[in-house]
């Protein structure tokens, strides 16, 4: 069942899926199945595979496609975006075409680290669009904290104006609220396209970004149902209620975005929630100490108490 290609109207929560491994470090396709089912049970609107959180750089080309095929086959028609960022343009092109043939809705491309200057950035994406052709929808992944490449709003607007296949901004610049507002203001100019904007950074600034015109989230927080419920409350015109719910989860949102151990925490929670058989990362990866796990126990217990006090416990545990 195909959900069609990604376009500028995309909205909701596109969960960035973890890649499950066995304790020995092999890709665990059975856990890919259970994780996909878990995300669907949380109400996600789409999936993003092979993102930075998906340990994509540790997978072989064959493993990458096997994960993509497995999720698309089980996603019940939800759109699947595939991260294809790579130092070599030919690798970007090949993985993009393989992903689209497998049934992906579009691909996500981050600029290669070290790219210099506005013209350098524009020219790189012009080459990407030429290599992929006009029929593959593209998400620009704007994550300068990792790439070291800053995307000025005027350069993004040039790309949107010149390349109709650019349909979404994955907004992770931080601080980035003013930038998000500037993009949305710029779209009011005559003849300019409005593109979809989904936000990341673990959801750290999610309610404020929704208030400023984001269309949803693309991140991997281990309680995806919160991301979905916050989106739905905003969609129903209940921003205050959305913020109240977000606030209950904020200590764990913040805890999960720690550099170095953030992914280990996220996988540990997914493991505890029964979504994957092992919290293992493929080497080289981080692991949690006994103290880290005890700390997490306490934070989850506090979350459950606060949810119970608001009558939301059942929803979070579904």
UniProtKB/TrEMBL annotation:
Q: What is this protein called?
A: Dihydrodipicolinate synthase family protein
Q: What is the lineage of its organism?
A: Bacteria, Pseudomonadati, Pseudomonadota, Alphaproteobacteria, Hyphomicrobiales
| Family indicated by similarity | Belongs to the DapA family.
InterPro entries found in the cross-reference section: Aldolase_TIM, DapA-like
Q: Pfam families attached here?
A: DHDPS
Which Gene3D superfamilies does the protein's record reference? Answer: Aldolase class I
The record's keywords, sorted A to Z, are:
Lyase
Transmembrane annotation, as ranges: none
